[in-house]
Amino acid sequence: MTFLAPIVLTGLAAVGLPILIHLLNKSQVKVMKWAAMKFLLECVRKNERKMQLEDLLLLILRCLLVALLVLAFALPALKGLGKALLNTGPVTAMLVLDRSASMEYNNGQEARLDQAKSEANRLLDSSPGGTKAGLILAGAMPDAVVPSPSGDLPLVKRRIQLAETDAGKSDLYPAMKLAVDALQQGNAPQPQVHIFTDDTVSAWARADEIAKLRLENPDIEFIHHAVGARETDNTSITALQTEGGSPVTGEPFSIVATLKNWGTEPVTGIRVTASVDRDAPQAEELIATLGAGEERKVLLTIKSETAGFHALEVKTPADRIPGDNARAMAFRALERPKVLIVRDERTQASGPSSEFFLAQALQPLSREQRARAPITITEKTPREAGSLPIDEFDLVVLCDPRDLSALWSAEILAAYVKQGGNLLVFPGENAAARTPPFPDAWNTLLPALPGRPETPPKDQPAFGLQTTGFLHPVLAPWNEPSMGSLALVRTARRFPLRAAKAAKDGIPPQTILAFSDGQPALIEWKVGNGRATLAAFPLERGWTNLYLHPSFVAIIQRWFAAMLSGHGGELNLPPRAGFGHAAPLDAVGKAFFVRAPGQDEARKAGQIEGRENSGWLQFRETAKAGPYSISLEPTTPPIAAFAVQGPADAGELRYAEPDAITTALKADAPTPTGSEVVPMAGRSKAAYSMELWFPIIVIATLLLCLETALAHRFSQSK
Fold first, then answer.
1. C-beta separation of 312 from 348 below 8 A
2. What count of Cα atoms within 13 Å lies in the side-chain half-sphere of residue 293?
3. Element (H, E) at 708
4. Taking Cα atoms as reference points, which of 608, 718, 536, 674 lies closest to residue 194?
5. Which parts of 109-246 are beta strand (E)?
6. Backbone angles phi, psi at 436, to 5 degrees
7. Which residues, at least 6 apart from 553, have a Cβ–Cβ distance to it below 8 Å?
8. Where are the alpha helices (DSSP H) in 79-111?
9. Strand pairing partners for 531?
10. Residue among 502, 528, 704, 682 nearest 616 (CA)
11. How many angstroms separate the CA atoms of 169 and 574, rounded?
């Protein structure tokens, strides 16, 4: 038993009032001697013991009456599986357990998820015989661990104990919908949905839909269990971004980590470290003070000694939510990236054009310095390039070649990209002279189909680029005013790009950069393990002045790093996104192994399938944030790596208004008694299925009647 208004229990001190009044009345008795009194002394002595017992009985009744009234106003209640405690038979319950990142919050004794587990286990332990229960885990996506009510309660309890927090934010509605659907299967006696949550804003963001779900199912009792106090102190790593060019083995590689203090008090002495492949930290910075609500960027420089796929981790000391004090990012390091720029013969003597500005942006160095640069750039004409083995290059750039037939076929280019190569295409005057600009065979390779070049409307001197709202990771830093604006970039002509309808490997084309009217200026998509990117204009005078903008070099270098290392694409995923990667053809049918966050060794995770003359592996268990590595054997070097990153604001602890929860679970329709939510002292009234205040009031009323009757009778006898 517990009390919904425990502060009222302080009123038990009033039990002393009847005793005090009794003593005061006794002390006020005056002794008076008079002659006739001596004849009554003998009678008084005979009745004295009887009168003392009567007074004591009345005193006990009055004290008990006061105590019962105080207890009634304290709202005593019994906890359990709804009406089961009323001994009305077995219950059919679906438990919805919030496992979002905020449920990892630790008050210094236990995490909220552990509190919810204990509460759920107590409910199951107190259930009567014949009770059935199921379990749905709520997060960014629901997970039906025990999808339908089962009489095997030990199984449900084991599944509860195995539940872990994921990296996403919570959304209770989909999980509650699954719970209701499960209860509607068959004739379930006393159907109930128990919700265990810390009541963050995201959890109850769809409160209106929850209320509608409840009203549509008046026979189901919804019971809310709030866990944890509404604390807000937390500091988290919200983002990781690359700085500069692509990762090259043995060369310094810079990243920017963003930290935010979500709490109301400043935090001091934050040590920020960065490591690669779970080794010892390579870089360290110290933030002396991070003010309340303040966000800070930290520059960290690391390097990878070997080529291939790697994962870096940035960490800070663990606080209330340890999960958001580490953030991982996967990348691919190359020995020395090789870039092939295919330029048309006609442009060699016609002044600077796309290949010139692109080479300068990738290597802003003197001719002498380029020989020692970590990137090798080769420039060839279409006929010269057509005789080269394309697989030797990490990036192939086509700068408006006139004779496409002298190049590799579209099939060879597609195979090159699928195996991990990257293609960038700048159409120009030569493409404008062709109808269509590219042969039909290229339609399955390019992320968009270029139309005929167009000029701005008469009332518009030029096409402008977007200046805010950048969604692609390459351009995301330009959402900050400190990075400058692209407002001065003007484009006189452009190819309208119509995004391809079919998606490669389930990933649709992504716009990297758009015009101010929303049309793509630079668009890409994933093809196998590589990417193909198409621009809407060449880097030439008469088309655009982008190459003159101060941000041009930074944009090209960030795009180049993202294309080669996967920073902005498929190597860094949101929770539960799933990861796919090409594997050697001779590995088809063999097992692959994954080392997930928190694991000391790789474990068997699946089998490599065959797909389009190559192997393909698919891994979907990506609920937990952190680095993942994939290998063909538990002890061999990884053939791929990726990272799962939670939402940037997952560490923000904002809570739903009590009124929103009350509205969502309010008894606006005929519903089981005791399901209305009235949050009080961190608990909801709906979590208690049998309230005892009314029977206590009835007992107190009977005692009052008894005390009145006895007092009257005793006074008459005296």
1. no
2. 2
3. helix 693-717
4. 674
5. 132-138, 143-150, 191-197, 221-226, 235-243
6. -75, 170
7. 360, 361, 364
8. none
9. 422, 526
10. 528
11. 11
| Length reported for the chain | 718
What's the CA gap between 336 and 451, in Å, rounded? 36
**What residue type is assigned to position 662 of the chain?**
T
Q: What are phi and psi of 420, to 5 degrees?
A: 115, 0
Report residue 588 as tokens.
Answer: 């088809």
Inter-helix orientation angle 16-27/41-73, to 10°: 160
DSSP 8-class letter at 694 = H
How far from chain centre, in Å, is Cα 639? 28
Q: What is the pLDDT of residues 302-340, one digit of tens each?
A: 988 888 889 999 999 999 899 999 999 998 888 888 999
pLDDT in tens, 544-596: 999 999 999 989 988 887 777 653 347 888 888 889 888 888 899 999 999 99
Q: Which tokens in the block code for residue 152?
A: 């095997």
Find, among 697, 689, 699, 662, the residue nearest to 677 by Cα: 662
> In 3D, which of 363, 77, 385 has the Cα closest to residue 246?
363
Residue 645 tokens, joined: 């990153």
Residue 664 in contact with residue 176, Cβ under 8 Å?
Answer: no
CB atoms within 10 A of CB 478: 22
| Cβ neighbours around 291 below 10 Å, total | 12
Lookup result for tokens 């001994």: 87
183: part of which helix (H) or strand (E)?
helix 172-183
**Tokens read off for 714:** 């005793």
Three-state SS letters, 23-65: HHHHHCCCCCCCHHHHHCHHHHHHHHHHHHHHHHHHHHHHHHH
How many angstroms separate the CA atoms of 313 and 278, rounded?
Answer: 7
Kindly write down the DSSP assignment for every residue of 259-278, as one continuous string. Answer: EEE-SSS-EEEEEEEEEETT
